[in-house]
Fold this protein.
Amino acid sequence: MTSTAVAPAKVILFGEHFVVHGTSAVLCAIDMLVQVAVTSLEDDILQIESKVGSCKTMISNGKVTDTLGPLAYIARKISKKSGHSGGMHIIVNSHIPSGAGLGSSSACCVAATCATIGLFSECTKEDIVEIALQAERTMFVNASGADSAASAYGGVLCFNIESGFKKLRSSANLSLLVANSGIQRSTDNVVSGVGEFRANNVDRFEKLCQNESKLISKAIPAVMEGDLEKIGEYFGENQSYLEEIGVSNNTLDKMIKITDEYGYGSKITGAGGGGCIISAVPIEKQKEAIEALTDAGYVSHTVNIDHFGARMIH
Ligand code: PMV
């Protein structure tokens, strides 16, 4: 029997980095999907096929590479829970670029968990987030859970390290531009750099956290209403804080300059140092903005909110 599920990528609309130091962040699931198909096997086999690696080993105790560790964790955990004595064949098909701050690893764990549970029983979003996050933490010890929550639940979420996540009841459609710098970076390194900035600029950092919190209170209603013009203005304000803490660079600045000729404002999404920017560009200008980015050598996409989150497709 085969069970197939999809799960969306995410963008951080507001609050990255400051969220690590106690403010809230606003995230949203986007319609860029990873699909995972899981087939139950009679024999003691764990076979995984994905762009980031493949393996064929024993599900009982075979070794897998670190990259495939989270998927092996999911297969083993759910097999044990459901009393499945055979193996599994997992095929991952992702349309989410990896290492770009769009939550590809979390989405992959979320889709794999949804599909694997789906082989044996109905699954709830709570179950998906719990197992997918445990799996992700086998590789990224510090994963906060925000990405897996956004991918599992879909829509727009507010996340805070202390209080967890809250889904914002918005059905607004929001069409944003996501452009990829093509520079892969380690979130941990960029986060450490911000920690150093904070240690050397205690008062200023505190002030920036306060500014970010105020910005987020204004930004949430704009996101709920799908007010692109205001969102763009707030992106610009948020970007100025991100630049001050040192997570932008020449490439990202250049991309922002290009998109800002067509829209209302842009910012880094995620850790920065590379990865992607998001931009509030009105629909009628998106084609031109994408062409300008392509001419400058950057891949970009129009994305919309994915309101559904993880789901079985058959
Ligand atoms: O680029 P990403 O998706 O890894 O996002 C990192 C977001 C940070 O706020 C910089 C770190 C975090 O754990 O929240």
User: Anything to note?
Assistant: The chain has nine helices and twelve strands. The chain has a mean pLDDT of 95. The longest strand covers residues 25-41.
